[in-house]
Structure formats: structure tokens, C-alpha cells
């Protein structure tokens, strides 16, 4: 950093090489300075943005997941792991198809096919995941597609809400009727 008399600070990248005479003795230094203040600020801004994303992703009250177009889990948050009872590492070694209840898989796969084909922009559905202990977890799933700069499919973004309490209340109300 270099601070001016007016208090303004800029960041410089400085390169220096020794200047030598015919005998090899150093008689001076040749240097260049490049103002990298904007690049440094851009790097700081990017780092802060990544930290905000990471904190939001990890601390969300809902499950959040990034899924490859082949169904592989690419990134999962803490809340999803809690919902299904798997560790992050266990989920990252699976596909969403492997933990989707068999009765819900066909409808889920059709929605994924449609979103990847560009027929729909997003979809929402209620379905069940199979927890690590073998029990079913009712969830409300909303999925959208992330695309690269050329518009190609990159990965699916899923937001997963635990609707187990609501489903139990609905079942109890139906029994009471």
C-alpha cells in the first residue's frame, strides 16, 4: 500500500531488478509500479460475496442443494443433512434418485426432464426422501436451473422445506373427520 498526504491509499505491485555494470557490480535498481487498487478491491468484494453466499447457503432454515444434470449431489447444506440423516459426505456420494422414494421418482424425473429440455423454468412438488434410517421424510421441493454464460445447463438448484409436521396434522385431521 502507498498512502498519500491527503490520506488516500492505493495498492501497488512493484517489480525491481538490480542494474549491473560490466563487472557485475550493482550500481542501481530498475523498478516498475502498477496501480492494482481496483483489482485488489474487486478481489475483496468477490471474497465478501462468496462469504455471504456460503453463510446464507449453510445457515438457511430450509435445505438447499446443487445437483448435477445427472442427479449427483454437488453441494448440500447442513439443514438438508439434518432432514435426511446423512452426513454431507454421504450425500455427496449419492444422487437425488437414490434417496427419492420409489413412488415419487417417476414424477420427479419427468419434471427434471422438462426443466432440462427448456419446457419449464422451474417446478415445485411434494415428495418423499428416504432417510438414512429408512423412514420417509415428506418435503416440498422447488427446483430451478442454473445456466452458464452461453445458456447451457450447469446444475439444478433445489430448495427443500420439511413439511412433515404439516402432513402429520393433515393426516390427524382426516382421521378425526
How would you describe the overall organization of this protein?
This protein has helices spanning 37-59, 78-84, 88-92, 96-99, 102-116, 164-176; strands at residues 2-3, 9-10, 12-20, 26-35, 63-68, 73-76, 122-130, 136-147, 153-162. It is an alpha+beta fold and 177 residues long. Strand 5 (63-68) and strand 6 (73-76) form a beta hairpin. The chain is elongated and about 100 Å long. The N and C termini lie far apart (74 Å).
Write the layout of secondary structure elements.
Layout: E1 2-3, E2 9-10, E3 12-20, E4 26-35, H1 37-59, E5 63-68, E6 73-76, H2 78-84, H3 88-92, H4 96-99, H5 102-116, E7 122-130, E8 136-147, E9 153-162, H6 164-176
Antiparallel strand pairs: 1-2, 3-4, 5-6, 5-9, 7-8, 8-9
In total, how many beta strands?
9
Q: Percent of residues in helical segments?
A: 25-40%
Strand content: 35-45%
Along the chain, the helix and strand elements come as EEEEHEEHHHHEEEH
Q: What is the overall silhouette?
A: elongated
Mean pLDDT: 94
Task: Report strand order across the widest sheet.
Answer: 6-5-9-8-7
Unreliable stretches (pLDDT < 50, length at least 5) are none
Rg to the nearest angstrom?
A: 27 Å
Q: Which structural category fits the helices and strands?
A: alpha+beta
Amino acid at each position: 500500500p502507498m498512502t498519500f498526504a491527503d490520506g488516500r491509499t492505493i495498492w501497488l505491485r512493484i517489480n525491481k531488478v538490480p542494474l549491473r555494470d560490466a563487472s557485475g557490480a550493482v550500481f542501481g535498481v530498475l523498478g516498475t509500479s502498477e496501480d492494482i487498487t481496483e483489482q485488489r478491491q474487486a478481489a475483496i468484494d468477490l471474497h465478501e460475496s462468496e462469504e455471504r453466499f456460503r453463510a446464507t447457503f449453510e445457515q438457511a432454515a430450509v435445505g438447499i442443494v446443487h445437483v448435477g444434470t445427472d442427479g449427483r449431489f454437488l453441494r448440500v447444506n447442513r439443514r438438508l443433512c439434518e432432514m435426511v440423516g446423512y452426513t454431507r459426505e454421504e450425500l455427496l456420494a449419492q444422487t437425488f434418485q437414490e434417496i427419492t422414494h420409489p413412488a415419487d421418482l417417476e414424477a420427479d424425473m419427468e419434471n427434471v426432464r422438462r426443466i432440462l429440455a427448456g419446457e419449464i423454468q422451474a417446478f415445485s412438488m411434494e415428495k418423499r426422501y428416504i432417510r438414512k434410517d429408512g423412514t420417509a421424510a415428506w418435503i416440498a421441493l422447488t427446483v430451478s436451473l442454473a445456466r452458464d454464460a452461453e445458456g447451457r445447463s450447469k446444475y439444478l438448484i433445489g430448495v427443500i422445506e420439511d413439511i412433515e409436521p404439516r402432513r402429520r396434522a393433515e393426516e390427524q385431521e382426516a382421521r378425526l373427520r
